[in-house]
């Protein structure tokens, strides 16, 4: 059973935010038709990490989609797109604001062709921001969204989050919004437009640091490494062969920690009486913990802490989590068989539905792989006409 | 118009992941009934950042919800909950795996009471992971999900992302999943269970670093500060009074940069001929850029780069983004009038719908504010019976 069976999505997006969003919808069974320029297509096809020369980035973000090519700068190409719009439930685009309008594909334009359409736009700043002309790269969205000012070690420069969160958080909001609009359309018959920006998405995730500023104290927090804003020890610590975390908020956890370190007297130490007081004397406490953990391996430390029921964990690198029993048990890496790359593992969507299971429907499309099929089946074009379009570089 | 009008959600969640998810659903018009323990309620009520003593964290994450108290360890309390389940479309919980089962509230149990229910569970590792017994704090999910190994400066310790991304990314997936299940139920009549884990959610966001490991090179990337894995200059740089970003991937942007720095000869320098080659000589290029930018203020640098159309940006702290024209224009901080805190600004959901506008429906509930109303209206209890429940500390 597929939740989004029979939902047709016309996908004009490239690289990360849009494709990440439509991949989620494809996994839920929607038919996603990805439209690419005949010359080269989506920039994500450029292989930076590859299997047999095929970009894993593209493969992962475009699994289970159909791929067609269409030159939207050509009048005929645009006409074909409009015919496909008539047959679609959803259109998703992540051009710079204004580009769709110049193509005659603004929401009011598209609504005339298909009144019930759901029209989702992803951009750096939104369709109506005074800053909408600024470049919409992930680094910029993270820099201006505020998150870099609170990410990184104390004293270090503001640090980009190590993943493209400006893109992916926007993708998640947009996927939520599209399904919400589909539900509403089911109830009311109305389509609508959806406008999601990367800066807004980053801003929406600031939580504690934003609350600290909006609260009575008006505190502008900066970077504080891995530690909790107030509680301690909730931080990263060092053993003799690597790092680990301790994540305790309360005196129960702390007293257990003191016992395993054979330092029961710390519980009476006025620097460490409560969570909040410990938070203010974090450097002193960190040094004490290190004087214990520096003598042990990470494995030894974690064994001791688990026994004593002190919340703690290893810190996995990419290989360790990818090959972990957890990821295996959760089937979070899924094999796909790609015509060029061959059998390849790509990450699954992390939602386990009991009934409408999220399923990777197939490999990503080769450039233009489904052009013929879609033009024939959806629009009834014949071979001769399709050949002419190809000869004229419209597809 | 509200997209989720008439959708009833029973919310058994606390602190961050669950409440963030149900706040999104409340903004779309769902009726969310938050169930709290009569003694103290959700831990997020503890004010760490506050307005007039009221926790902004709680206010923001629970806006527009109804709040009732119910002691689920009491037989009668549990019975009342089951009566409410009968009248709900969705139930959301973020207890440790197994807790709901012990209460007789596992999905199979609840399905017997309400066959069409959508039952969403959020946890650290998932309902069936071999690691499900481990502590499910955000720090642990980030540490084991792999993201900390790639977040932070080169040479620095693994660094927690400066926001609770383990919680919030899971919230976003769960909100998407719930609405997807609602859509499917509308089409088919079937409910289902949904199981989302924090570690899986973090894992799903690794993109480039995960692809690098899954690709032919099997590269295990580490921390690389703010820079792009391959391209340069896409990084954070220093001016004499602060930091800024340059975000250029190609020779066009680089040649413009060389010109404004009056260093046209760099375009011929064999260390900087292409994006990828520049990426390998990042330290040398960073030094050259700094020798130029160190003489200027951030404002001067950004003026020059904007004129020359080199993608670049300021790095906003929390106050700067919160008070920016962008956030004002996008209405991303919304006033709510809270009975205790008074008029307070909280962050909005970053999706602009043209038809079913996301709207903060009201302030967060005081502890048990709607207990009477809900028990009367939903279950037909009378004042006397409600008083008895209160006297017995069941509500």
Automatic annotation (TrEMBL), chains A, B:
Keywords: Transferase. The gene is frc. Its EC number is 2.8.3.16. It comes from the Bacteria. It comes from Desulfotignum phosphitoxidans DSM 13687. Pfam families: CoA_transf_3 (PF02515). One of its GO terms (molecular function) is formyl-CoA transferase activity. This is Formyl-CoA transferase Frc. Gene3D superfamilies: Crotonobetainyl-coa:carnitine coa-transferase, domain 1, formyl-coa transferase, domain 3.
């Amino acid at each position: 059973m597929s939740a989004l069976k029979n939902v047709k999505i016309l996908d004009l997006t490239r690289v990360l935010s849009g494709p990440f969003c439509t991949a989620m919808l494809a996994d839920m069974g929607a038919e996603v038709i990805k439209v690419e320029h005949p010359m080269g297509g989506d920039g994500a096809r450029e292989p930076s990490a590859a299997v047999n020369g095929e970009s894993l980035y593209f493969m992962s973000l475009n699994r289970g989609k159909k791929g067609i090519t269409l030159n939207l700068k050509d009048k005929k190409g645009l006409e074909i797109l409009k015919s496909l719009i008539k047959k679609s439930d959803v259109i998703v685009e992540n051009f710079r604001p204004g580009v769709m309008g110049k193509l005659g594909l603004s929401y009011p334009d598209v609504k005339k062709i298909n009144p019930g359409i759901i029209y989702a736009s992803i951009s750096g700043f939104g369709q109506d921001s005074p800053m909408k002309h600024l470049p919409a790269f992930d680094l910029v969205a993270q820099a201006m969204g505020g998150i870099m000012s609170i990410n990184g070690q104390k004293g270090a420069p503001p640090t980009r989050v190590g993943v493209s969160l400006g893109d992916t958080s926007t993708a998640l909001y947009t996927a939520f919004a599209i399904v919400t609009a589909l539900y509403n359309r089911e109830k009311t018959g109305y389509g609508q437009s959806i406008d999601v920006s990367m800066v807004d998405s980053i801003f929406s995730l600031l939580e504690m640091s934003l609350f600290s500023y909006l609260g009575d104290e008006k505190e502008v927090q900066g970077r504080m490494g891995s530690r909790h804003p107030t509680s301690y020890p909730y931080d990263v610590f060092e053993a003799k062969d690597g790092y680990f975390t301790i994540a305790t908020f309360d005196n129960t956890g702390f007293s257990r920690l003191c016992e395993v370190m054979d330092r029961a007297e710390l519980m009476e130490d006025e620097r460490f009486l409560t969570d909040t007081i410990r938070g203010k004397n974090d450097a002193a406490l960190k040094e004490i913990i290190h004087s214990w953990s520096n003598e042990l391996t990470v494995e030894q430390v974690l064994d001791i802490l688990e026994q004593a029921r002190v919340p703690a964990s290893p810190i996995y690198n990419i290989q360790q989590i990818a090959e972990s029993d957890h990821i295996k048990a959760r089937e979070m890496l899924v094999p796909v068989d790609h015509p060029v790359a061959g059998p390849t593992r790509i990450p699954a969507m992390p939602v386990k539905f009991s009934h409408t299971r999220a399923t990777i429907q197939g490999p990503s499309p080769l450039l233009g792989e489904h052009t013929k099929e879609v033009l024939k089946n959806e629009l009834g074009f014949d071979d001769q006409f399709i050949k002419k379009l190809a000869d004229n570089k419209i597809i």
